[in-house]
């Protein structure tokens, strides 16, 4: 089925609120999913893959800062989705890069890492050059690199297959962000190492997807749409029950 950008964004926001996100976090997370979907990057599918994990996460769990200095910050995402753990981390990296010219932020133990791209698009719109990369635990072993140039709303995305997996290779559930005031300071997206390019999405391709989505609507799988509606319905049920409980308590106090 096809829906508008605003419909998708609004339903996702309600679904995240139903899961237990704070209002601001729910709006941010909805923006990220809608942004990816409108750029042809399968944001709803990525959300659906991690939804069971999101339902099990504790809303009170927050990322922990392990180490930082003027240029570097290392955070523990506590096994949470980036939709819960990444906003403050990206802002921390942005502030360091603005002050020092370059920053590196490493977030350990997080999932739904694809959904970070919408957050990075915001920072690029504020004049920051960004490269994000992470390793996907799959066969063949792949590494993904996402690069935003300052002022550009869409990234360049490359996915590589690692030819020779090192013997000391360990499962990697983290992500590394490099931010710079000057694009020349960023790592290159080129395949200078022993890697095979599996996929390449240039800025122009993703921008064309965005323009088509806004014109003709965003395609969303019916089953996933129904699941989001079910989660969004939690808000209505819980708010109704809370309202009834409050009314009852008030009557009891007056007895």
In words, what does this structure look like?
With 255 residues, the protein is an alpha+beta fold. The chain is 46% helix and 25% strand. It has helices at residues 5-19, 23-38, 43-56, 82-85, 87-100, 117-125, 203-216, 222-253; strands at residues 2-3, 64-68, 72-81, 102-111, 129-136, 142-148, 156-162, 175-180, 195-201, 218-219. Strands 2-3-4-8-5-6-7-9 form an 8-stranded mixed sheet. A hairpin with a 5-residue loop joins strand 5 and strand 6 (142-148). The chain is globular and about 50 Å long. The model is unreliable at 247-255 (pLDDT under 50). This is Ldh family oxidoreductase. InterPro entries: DUF3726, Mal/L-sulf/L-lact_DH-like_ah, Mal/L-sulf/L-lact_DH-like_NADP, Mal/L-sulfo/L-lacto_DH-like_sf. Pfam families: DUF3726.
Number of strands: 10
Strand content: 25-35%
Order of helix and strand elements from N to C terminus: EHHHEEHHEHEEEEEHEH
Shape: globular
Overall radius of gyration: 20 Å
For the record, give the distance between the C-alpha atoms at the N and C termini, rounded to a whole number. 53 Å
Average pLDDT across residues? 83
Number of helical elements: 8
Helix content: 40-55%
Note poorly predicted spans: 247-255
Decide which structural class fits the backbone. Answer: alpha+beta
Biggest β-sheet: strands ordered side by side in the sheet: 2-3-4-8-5-6-7-9
Biggest sheet: strands, sense, closure? 8 strands, mixed
